[in-house]
Design goal:
The chain is an alpha+beta fold. The chain contains eleven helices and seven strands. A three-stranded antiparallel beta sheet has the order 3-4-5. Strands 1-2 form a two-stranded antiparallel ribbon. A hairpin with a 4-residue loop joins strand 6 and strand 7. The longest helix has 17 residues. The radius of gyration is 34 Å and the shape is globular.
Length: about 290
Amino acid sequence: MAELPKKDVMDKVGRPHDDMHNDGDQPARVEFTKKKNVEATVAEKGVVSEGVAPSRKRGRPRKEGPKHYPIVRTYPKDVVKVLKKISSQRRKYVRKTVFKSFLDIKIKHFDRNFLAYLYSRWDASRKVLRIRDDYEVQIDDEMVGWITGLPYGEVTRDIPPVKRGKSSIQDMKTENRNAGGIGYRVVHNMCLDEAKEKSEFLKHFVLYVFGNILCTTTSNNISPDLCWLVRRKFLRDAKKYSWSKFILEWMVKYGNGDSTKGFKGSPTVLMADARSTWCISFKKKRKKHCIKI
C-alpha cells in the first residue's frame, strides 16, 4: 500500500496529528474505539469521528406503541355453549315461551372494530343507522321484533321503568353477584344447574342472553338493570309486554357514547340491520323474523 500523505492522517478526533505519521514501510492507520467494533483506514473510510460507525438501519422497525381497541363486552360464544348443554326438556320449555328464537342463535363472535364503526353510525336521537351518508335505516320496535323474534307493537304493553329498590331485584343481584357485579360465569352456571326449577332456569337464561348480546354495556358484568326484566310478573305474562321496545330504549339510552372507547347497546340489532354476517329468515307460519345466525 502506498504511503499516505501526512495531511491525510487524522487522529481519533479527526484532527491532523504529526506523531501518527509513519515514515517507514507500514501504512498509516486510524484505530477507532471498540464501541461498534469499527476499524478502517483513512483511505477506505475517510475522516470518521471517534467511535461513530457508518449509519445503517438494524433489526425490526420500532413500533408506534400499543394499539387501543374499543371495549366490547359481548360473548355470544358462551350463549351457544349453554344452548348445546341444556337438556332437551328445557329446550322444549323455552320453545313454549316468547323466547324460543333464542334457541336459534349460532353466531360465536362479534368483530369489535366493526361494532365500534356501527356504533359511530348510530344516531340515537333520531333512531336511525347511517349505512352511508346518503342512506339511512330507521329502527323501531317492529324492526327489533323482526330481528329478535320478541313481541312488539300496539297489542303489547311497555315494560315499566326500572325500579332498583325492589326486593326481588336486590335478591337477584345478591344471588348472581361476583366481585364487581352480576357475573357472566355465575349466571352461566345457573343456566346449567339441572337442580333449578324451570322457572328459575328461564329467569337466568333470559338474563344471560340479554346481558350477552341484546343489552350490553362496557362493564365486564351483566347490567343489574336487566334483573328488572326477569321478574316473575314479566316472565309469566311475557306475551303481553313489548320486549322489543325495551331493547330499542336501551339502544337510545346508551347510544351517545364514544365509539372509540367501547360499544354499548344491542350488537344483535345493529349487526342485523347492517346486513353483515347475519341471515334473517322469514317464518311463513308465524309471519315474524327470527335470528338465524
